[in-house]
Write a structure and sequence with these properties.
Elements (H helix, E strand, L loop, with lengths): L8 H18 L9 H22 L7
């Protein structure tokens, strides 16, 4: 559902993407309606992806 608060199509697509990933995390055959808290959680997860990617590119990872 899209409210009149939605600014532009790019924001709406971003919200839909976040909702899809949230539904996927819940398991198969799930649906999820976007909530503002979803975006902050995904943003924090993506920070870790960026940190790990940078560490790998800079050879700062040591595997045991």
């Amino acid at each position: 559902m899209v409210s009149s608060d939605s600014v532009d199509a790019a924001s709406i697509m971003s919200f839909a993407d976040v909702a899809c990933y949230s539904a996927k995390d819940m398991g198969r055959n799930q649906i999820h309606l976007y909530q503002d808290s979803d975006a902050s959680m995904r943003h924090e997860e993506m920070k870790w992806v960026s940190r790990i990617t940078n560490a790998a590119e800079e050879n700062r990872l040591e595997l045991f």
